[in-house]
Specification:
CATH class of the largest domain in chain A: Mainly Beta
Strand order of the largest sheet of chain A: 1-2-3-6
CATH topology of the largest domain in chain B: Rna Polymerase Sigma Factor, Chain: A
Order of helices and strands of chain B: HHHHHHHHH
Bound molecules: zinc ion
CATH architecture of the largest domain in chain A: Sandwich
Distance between the termini of chain A: 35 Å
CATH superfamily of the largest domain in chain B: RNA polymerase sigma factor, region 2, helix turn helix motif
Largest sheet of chain A: 4 strands, antiparallel
Shape of chain B: globular
Number of strands of chain B: 0
Distance between the termini of chain B: 26 Å
Order of helices and strands of chain A: HHHHHHHHEEEEEEEE
Number of domains of chain A: 3
Oligomer: heterodimer
Strand content of chain B: under 5%
Helix content of chain A: 25-40%
Number of strands of chain A: 8
Radius of gyration of chain A: 22 Å
Helix content of chain B: 55-70%
Largest interface: A-B, 50 and 82 residues
CATH topology of the largest domain in chain A: Immunoglobulin-like
Structural class of chain A: alpha+beta
Number of helices of chain A: 8
Number of domains of chain B: 2
CATH class of the largest domain in chain B: Mainly Alpha
Shape of chain A: elongated
Largest sheet of chain B: none
Chain lengths: 244, 204
């Protein structure tokens, strides 16, 4: 099955809000470019609205009063401007999506270099960017790529045992939903997963904290903004690592 | 299909008759700040909105909050409602459903809800005193269409939409391989849509 047909198949679950946060964000991105799915979602929502009918139940009068006194204090928004400029982001991302790994790594390295040049006001990024660059260019660097569920892009893990460090590079992975972040995890043999830091922006390569040379696995999950102590059920990628 | 049905003078909501047109018109007036029009719109839609919130949340107090938030959102965004992209009822219920589901997933309410919820509940008959005779006929039609789905399709659609579960949760609950529940949900909804004669919408 190709990923394109996979993503169309999410239309029904999306129409009834039955997607997890990540798939929801990813499908919304898809909707912006797929008229077929937009039409299908609209028709399935109409259908679902009919299902709700058998659940109808008169609300208490207090609710009516609450609503009607509430609107008195809210100014209705004006209509949306007729031709809203289409999001420019997808075009850029399509560009990146087509590239295969070697170019991707080169691109990532370029991003890292750009970041180094542009982060005078974020001095803390300087070290991390250097580490990422070193890992990506390490002679013993090994890469593993995992696809995210539902065709939500993929994440490549680059590990250098010699440096004891690993870097994650996301390709075509949607931004995390509002209030959420991607969080990286490392597992030492026989131990539970331990946080290896956040990946708040999937467009930036992220260096994992912790000793990557001895780890037996790495993972990525979707967590509330500040990160979690343990991975939630929403793990989107797991990278088995060879023992060294 | 409308000529087959026994109440010809009150067209059903999904067939472009007077009700959807009236609801869309009320919303248009509300967008210009007409509170009376909004009150009328509320009266015509609130039982459905509230009933759906209660069904998903299984908690009347929370359902009231979600319903109120949804109506205030509708008032604020009334100018952005586009009748070419779907009915006003569907627009409202989409907002209510999303809020109810987000709330249920964000809170430990899902724990309490699981305890109170049995699969058998899914098709249970509800108090229909709030509904007009026409609505009852519509509800009957919907139930007939639902009965026409395969059992797994029906369960998947009901657990997802009325239960507020994700397709992954639905797969676990129905002992389906992960990834097949979303297909069941979609196939079920498409079959319902076609059985109920829901027309093309949202092609814009
Ligand atoms: Zn599509």
């Amino acid at each position: 099955m190709n990923p394109t047909s996979d993503i169309h198949a999410l239309s029904g679950a999306f129409a009834v809000d039955a997607l997890g946060d990540l798939e929801r964000a990813q499908f919304e991105h898809h909707l912006a470019e797929c008229a077929e799915c937009r039409a299908e979602v609209a028709s399935l929502r109409e259908t679902a609205a009919l299902l709700a009918q058998s659940e109808a139940e008169a609300p208490p009068e207090s609710l009516r009063q609450g609503v009607l006194s509430g609107i008195g204090q809210i100014r209705p928004l004006p209509p949306e401007p007729p031709a809203q400029p289409a999001q420019p982001a997808p075009a850029v991302r399509t560009d990146v999506r087509r590239r295969r790994l070697p170019q991707l790594l080169a691109a990532a390295a370029a991003v890292v270099l750009l970041a180094v040049g542009a982060v005078l006001w974020h001095p803390w990024q300087h070290d991390r960017a250097n580490v990422a660059d070193q890992v990506l260019h390490a002679p013993d660097a090994v890469t593993i790529t995992e696809k995210l569920p539902g065709g939500a892009g993929e994440i490549t893990l680059v590990r250098s045992v010699a440096l004891g460090k690993a870097v994650m590079i996301a390709d075509d992975v949607p931004q995390p939903p509002a209030g959420k972040t991607y969080q990286m995890w490392l597992q030492q043999p026989g131990q539970p997963m331990v946080s290896a830091g956040l990946m708040p922006d999937p467009k930036e390569p992220a260096v994992l904290s912790g000793d990557a040379s001895t780890a037996s696995a790495a993972a990525v999950s979707v967590e509330p903004s500040g990160g979690s102590a343990h991975p939630s059920a929403d793990v989107v990628a797991v990278f088995p690592l060879k023992p060294t | 299909m409308s000529h087959l049905r026994p109440v010809p003078d009150d067209p059903s909501p999904e067939e472009g008759g007077s009700l959807p047109a009236r609801l869309a018109e009320l919303l248009k007036r509300a967008a210009r700040g007409d509170e009376k029009a909004f009150a009328e719109w509320y009266d015509a839609t609130a039982a459905r909105a509230f009933g759906l919130a209660v069904r998903v949340l299984r908690d009347r107090a929370q359902a009231e909050e979600v319903t109120q938030e949804s109506y205030l959102d509708c008032w604020r965004h009334a100018a952005r409602f586009d009748p070419a992209k779907g009915s006003a009822m569907s627009w409202l219920l989409t907002i209510v459903h999303r809020k109810a589901v987000d709330r249920v997933r964000a809170s430990e309410a899902s724990f309490r809800r699981d305890a109170a919820y049995g699969l058998r509940d899914a098709g249970v008959a509800h108090d229909e005193t709030a509904e007009s005779a026409t609505a009852s006929i519509e509800a009957h039609r919907v139930r007939a269409a639902l009965a026409d789905l395969t059992r797994k399709q029906r369960e998947a659609v009901e657990l997802a939409f009325l239960g507020g579960y994700t397709h992954t949760e639905v797969a676990t609950m129905l002992d389906l391989p992960v990834g097949t529940a979303k297909t069941r949900i979609r196939d079920g909804l498409i079959r319902l849509r076609d059985a109920l004669g829901v027309g093309e919408v949202g092609t814009a």
